[in-house]
Design a protein that fits this description.
With about 280 residues, this protein is α+β, with helices and mostly antiparallel strands. The protein has helices at about 20-30, 65-75, 105-110, 185-190, 275-280; strands at about 5-10, 35-40, 60-65, 85-90, 100, 115-130, 135-140, 145-150, 155-160, 165-170, 175, 200-205, 215-220, 225-230, 235-240, 245-250, 255-265. The chain folds into 2 domains: about 5-115 and about 270-280, Rossmann fold (3-Layer(aba) Sandwich), CATH 3.40.50.10330; about 120-260, Tumour Suppressor Smad4 (Sandwich). It contains 5 helices and 17 strands. The longest helix is centred in the N-terminal third of the chain and has 14 residues, at about 20-30. InterPro entries: ATP-NAD_kinase_N, ATP-NAD_kinase_PpnK-typ_C, NAD/diacylglycerol_kinase_sf, NADK.
Length: about 280
């Protein structure tokens, strides 16, 4: 007798249609032979913490929600090989593979192992607080933001690439994004779209008071470093994927590089990323 297959359903409880869709998804997964766990906790873990991950025997995580819910689910599969399948209940749903009306087909294909894996690069961040002997560590699928803690003042930053100083300026902050995150906050702030098969990181300044304050893109083997200068008029605030965050005092260094880990997205369509870009952004073509 074959072993029991296990799936996790992660949902956004505040979306109006989530209750009905969750019930349908759970029932369809069970009919397909899955044991199902439901996770609807929206509380963000602390920065630098290691939240619990899914069971070792989990076959797939089905996410019912928008991109924010997928980012929450990513915390559950970090450092595992468990893939995520997104069913969009939000607005753009850039990371989702299906819309809610296609859920039955999605679950049927999951049950039949009829999907491919899209490995996405994630970013690793080390935060060196003043006088610390070891860094606080975290990660991001989309982006890491370093912003001013005081909304009425600027944060003064020094920007380095591979320990070579590139620039220093006062600003509202900077975004360091992965290719996956290049269509999110970084895009809204003027950064370019980076195709997900490109191994790179980009840094996008936010309202910087400097002539040389344009987006920078570095290769996967390089590292961005941002120092909060001692004479900054504001402390800093760091946030990973819009969830895990903490205050940073002056004198803190933040280093971001490619992580050795990846995140696995289940894909049921072989269409290229360009098609997804045109569809999700409703481009005039």
């Amino acid at each position: 007798m074959a072993g029991v297959r296990h799936a996790v359903v992660v949902t956004h409880t505040r979306l109006r249609e989530s209750g009905t869709v969750v019930s349908e998804a759970v029932e369809q997964l069970r009919q397909a032979g899955f044991e199902v766990s439901i996770i609807d906790n929206t509380e963000a873990p602390e920065f630098g913490s290691r939240p619990p991950v899914v069971r070792d025997d989990t076959e797939i995580v089905v996410v019912l929600g928008g991109d924010g819910t997928i980012l929450r689910a990513a915390e559950l599969v970090h450092c595992t090989s468990v893939p995520i399948l997104g069913v969009n209940l939000g607005h753009v749903g850039f990371l989702a593979e299906f819309e809610s009306f296609q859920m039955s087909e999605a679950i049927r294909r999951v049950a039949e192992h009829d999907y491919s894996i899209d490995e996405r690069m994630i970013a690793h961040v080390d935060v060196w607080l003043p006088g610390a002997s070891a860094p606080l560590e975290d990660w991001a699928l989309n982006d890491i933001t370093l912003e001013r803690a005081d909304r009425g003042k600027m944060v003064e930053l020094s920007i380095r690439v591979d320990d070579v100083e590139m620039s220093s300026f006062g600003c509202d902050g900077v975004i360091v994004s992965t290719p996956t995150g290049s269509t999110a906050y970084a895009f809204s702030a003027g950064g370019p779209v980076i195709w997900p098969n490109v191994k790179a990181l980009q840094l996008v300044p936010l309202a910087a008071h400097a002539l040389f304050a344009r987006p920078l893109i570095i290769g996967a083997g390089s590292t961005f470093a941002m120092d909060i200068l001692d004479d900054s008029t504001s402390d800093g605030w760091i946030c990973c994927d819009g969830r895990r965050q903490r205050a940073l005092p002056k004198g803190t260094r933040v280093e971001v590089r490619q992580s050795k880990d990846t995140l696995r997205l289940a894909r049921l369509s072989g269409a290229p990323f360009t098609n997804r870009l045109v569809t999700k952004f409703d481009l005039p073509v």
